[in-house]
């Protein structure tokens, strides 16, 4: 398998941002139902790179041969919300210090530097408005 070295700078890469209500961390249950975790699925060539920033680790998984429509449908069948987006170039400025969460990880992946997006729900609304 040969993955493009410029994956994160390719503006044509399709990215699925997946929002889930599932969590094993009790204090995350204060977040809006259905929006307690988020992660990204990045399409390049015929591969999907799943980028899942968890509380204790970050998981990267590569899957081959999956169609974006089928993948999106599967996530929706699992009760997740999915937003299709692209990677935008990050502004050439420093990111203010912040707690590194799944939301912060996905924001950095997508080139979003807003300090006002802290929860998965806020990220979801931002991405919906950006379309």
Q: What is this structure's SSE topology?
A:
Blueprint: E1 14-20, E2 37-44, E3 47-53, E4 58-64, H1 68-77, E5 81-86, H2 102-110, H3 120-130
Antiparallel strand pairs: 1-2, 1-5, 2-3, 3-4
Short description:
With 131 residues, the chain is an alpha+beta fold. It is built from three helices and five strands.
Major β-sheet strand ordering: 4-3-2-1-5
User: What's the N-to-C terminus distance?
Assistant: 32 Å
Number of helices: 3
Characterize the overall form: globular
Can you give the mean pLDDT?
86
Tell me about the biggest sheet? 5 strands, antiparallel
Strand content: 25-35%
| Unreliable sequence segments | none
Q: Over the alpha carbons, how many angstroms does the gyration radius reach?
A: 14 Å
List keywords for this structure.
131 residues, alpha+beta, 5 strands, 23% helix
3D structure, described in words:
The protein has 131 residues and is an alpha+beta fold. The protein has one domain (7-130). The protein is built from three helices and five strands, in the order E-E-E-E-H-E-H-H. The chain has helices spanning 68-77, 102-110, 120-130, and strands at 14-20, 37-44, 47-53, 58-64, 81-86. Strands 4-3-2-1-5 form a five-stranded antiparallel beta sheet, sandwiched between helices.
């Amino acid at each position: 398998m040969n993955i493009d070295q410029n994956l994160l700078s390719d503006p044509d890469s399709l990215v699925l941002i997946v929002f889930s209500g599932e969590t094993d961390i009790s204090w995350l249950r204060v977040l809006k139902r259905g929006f307690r975790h988020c992660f990204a699925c990045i399409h390049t060539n015929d591969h999907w790179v799943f980028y899942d920033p968890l509380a204790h680790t970050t998981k990267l998984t590569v899957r081959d041969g999956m169609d974006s429509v089928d993948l999106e449908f599967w996530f929706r069948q699992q009760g997740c919300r999915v937003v299709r987006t692209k990677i935008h170039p990050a502004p050439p400025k420093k990111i203010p210090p912040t707690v590194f969460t799944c939301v912060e990880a996905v924001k950095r992946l997508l080139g979003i530097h807003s300090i006002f997006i802290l929860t998965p729900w806020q990220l979801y609304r931002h991405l919906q408005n950006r379309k």
